[in-house]
Structure formats: structure tokens, C-alpha cells
Design a protein that fits this description.
Blueprint (H helix, E strand, L loop, with lengths): L16 E6 L2 E7 L4 E7 L13 E15 L2 E6 L3 E4 L5 E17 L9 E2 L5
Parallel strand pairs: 1-8
Antiparallel strand pairs: 1-2, 2-3, 3-7, 4-5, 4-6, 4-7
């Protein structure tokens, strides 16, 4: 494998492994040995499914606005905000009127995200 295969662009809609998470919520996944990145796009007012998984997750709001639902709290986030979600804490996102784009980082990689498909996996 060429080292060039290890370089990606967060704005390239054709890069990464595509997965439809929910209506109006899609992601492109980039998996390594110890970590996984997921570039999630949410249509205006789209919302993911409340779910949890054992992997630790960090998120960065790249564009738009959203409400981060984490545990029993709803926290407004804006471009540039980032957060940590410990393993097994229920969470989801609800996009604002202009939609949202989020970079999620998982450690270790989520096994169900190593293949194309749909849904969030563990709930």
C-alpha cells in the first residue's frame, strides 16, 4: 500500500467508507489500527438515534449548529466546539436549521463501522 493511501480530505464526499446512520444522517469512515475517524453529515433538523457503545468517542463540530444529547443533558454546540463521550454513555446529535457536520474520533475502532451498511450499531 502506498503512503498516499493514508492521506484523506474531510471535504471530499467520495473519500472513506460510506454508511447511512439514520434519515438525513450519513458518515464517511476512516479506520486505523488504534483509532477511527467518522465524518458525519446531518441534514437540517435531522437527528440520529440515541445509542451507546463501549468505545470512547470525541467529536468536533466542523460546520453548522446542533444539540448534543449526552446522558440526560442536551447541550447546544457551535462550529469549533468539541467534546468527549465516555464509553457506554447514551448520546446522539440533533442538527440546527443549517444542518451540521461533525468529526467523530473513536478509540478503539468500532468493529461494526469497519464495513459499509446502515444504522449506529450498538444501542
Amino acid at each position: 500500500m502506498s503512503q498516499k493511501d493514508e492521506f484523506h480530505n474531510v471535504d471530499n464526499p467520495d473519500d472513506g467508507l460510506f454508511r447511512e446512520l439514520a434519515a438525513g444522517v450519513t458518515t464517511r469512515i476512516f479506520s486505523g489500527e488504534q483509532a477511527m475517524l467518522s465524518v458525519v453529515t446531518l441534514a437540517p433538523h435531522a437527528q440520529g438515534t440515541l445509542h451507546h457503545h463501549p468505545e470512547e468517542q470525541w467529536g468536533v463540530l466542523l460546520d453548522g449548529s446542533a444539540i448534543r444529547v449526552q446522558g440526560d443533558e442536551e447541550i447546544p454546540v457551535k462550529k469549533g466546539d468539541f467534546w468527549r463521550t465516555p464509553g457506554n454513555v447514551p448520546h446522539t446529535m440533533r442538527a440546527g436549521p443549517d444542518g451540521a457536520r461533525v468529526l467523530d474520533i473513536f478509540s478503539p475502532p468500532r468493529p461494526e463501522y469497519r464495513k459499509a451498511g446502515s444504522g449506529f450499531g450498538t444501542t
